[in-house]
Amino acid sequence: MKLERILVAVKPWERGLPLAANHASQLLQTATGRIDLVGTAYDAAVAAGRDRGDSAARVTQDRAVEAARVELERLARAIRDYGVKITTRIVWGVPAYEGILSAAEECRADLVVVGAHEPHTSHTRLTDTDWQLMRRVSCPLLLVKSPVFNGYRTVLAGVDSLHARDEPEGLDRAVLDAGRCFARAFSAALRTTDLDAMPQNNAELVVVGVPRRLGVPAEDVGSNAAMIATAAPCDVLIVPTEREVHAHPLSQIG
């Protein structure tokens, strides 16, 4: 895994500097990469008018996109104070996750970062945007929960202990690679644990994998990944793999 192009998705209801942007900025402080700050905008009535050829609706849409872009640029200025290269983009359309997925593919993102809906609660209520990104994004997804961020001291990688003792297979290898990448970025300790026994209170970042079978997005993220993403009080890194996973316990995540 590399961290050269990070896409930070700003959800339509978020206000102020997103938690996700702060995390991404610190990830790139010692790197030569860049951040793509992506927001979405949409108005059904305006869109319908434009589809009918209403020139006034076209002007209204352009103004709405420009207003959203100006707000995003305001956020970007705060991030540039970290010395990070950053671009901004507004995607018009619904649902929001479709625009985020398209932007991630277009910019060939190495990582997508998105803030949790309720970061101050012990259990996160995943939104439909969160679920769809977990299921369909082709690169790792960092779900940010920590309201205050000072780096990661401990990174916990959830693997299948049966295979982790030997050469890691498929998804385990992807999870360990991502865990090492984040551990290096923050000079953190990397530990591994069995998914079924994963503790939830002694790490700042948990890494968990989701398999993609034959390149087809999973219809269900799976019990382990969903449970960890919802219940873990810390940030969660969800790592996909396009490799077909053989039938062992970890392959049930998806």
Search tags:
8 helices; 9 strands; 254 residues; alpha/beta; 2 domains; globular; Rossmann fold; disordered C terminus; 9-stranded mixed sheet
Please, how many domains? Answer: 2
User: What value does the Rg take, in angstroms?
Assistant: 19 Å
Largest sheet entry: 9 strands, mixed
Q: Could you tell me the strand content as a percent range?
A: 15-25%
Structural class: alpha/beta
Shape: globular
Strands of the widest sheet, in order across it, are: 3-2-1-4-5-9-8-6-7
Report helical residue fraction: 25-40%
- Helical stretch tally: 8
- Number of E-state strands: 9
CATH class of the largest domain: Alpha Beta
Distance between the termini: 21 Å
What's the rounded overall pLDDT mean? 78
Q: Secondary-structure element order, as H and E?
A: EHEHHEHEHEEHHEEHE
Give the second-level CATH assignment, the architecture of the largest domain.
3-Layer(aba) Sandwich
Full CATH superfamily name of the largest domain: HUPs
The CATH topology of the largest domain comes to Rossmann fold
- Residue ranges: pLDDT <50 for 5 or more in a row? 162-168, 243-254
